[in-house]
């Protein structure tokens, strides 16, 4: 993997789910726990629940609604917040995320969390993993009304947060999001190779893959 030119990077923009956090929680929640809950609540088979829910989820892919707790609470008539609380024991950091963040902090890099997660989901996860001490700014795309896949997200971010796109590194596990960041002019991009610790490695396409976040900071000088 080519080393990053850290002398040209001031700001590190970080995705949450699948980048800092193990995507296993979200995959279990959306693909197993929630459809089973829906089936039990409505007295239908799991197969029937999947047949209804999976295409419905897919139809909102890349839109702000896909990530919205309130939207799915109303659409499916399910207590999504409470359901996420019920499964919060599955929320975990990806391997070495905390060491990676500590290295960035020691090197004086500005760390900004930019997530498509709804604030309700974000609050549940941050209570479990305690990332706030390592982050300078925490942004949910719901703050702006546009997901990271949308160029308007990046325009809103640049108005709200002082950073130079060309001197920023962005790490995410979503190819559409990375392509959106690339179009906006983010200077350095890395894709997460295995966002779900219990899932397969993914095709990172045109982006440089990252398996272990710690590898990205192996040559990062500390200012402390």
Automatic annotation (TrEMBL):
Enzyme class (EC, first level) = hydrolase
In Pfam terms, one family for this protein is Hydrolase
EC number(s) of the enzyme? 3.1.3.5
This one is known as: GMP/IMP nucleotidase
Which parts form a coiled-coil structure per UniProt? none
> What's one GO MF term for it?
5'-nucleotidase activity
The protein's matches in InterPro entries, at most eight in alphabetical order, are given as:
HAD-like_hydrolase_sf, HAD-like_sf, HAD-SF_hydro_IA, HAD_sf
- Which species? Denitrificimonas halotolerans
Swiss-Prot/TrEMBL keywords = Hydrolase, Metal-binding
Keyword presence, Methyltransferase: no
Q: Where is the signal peptide?
A: none
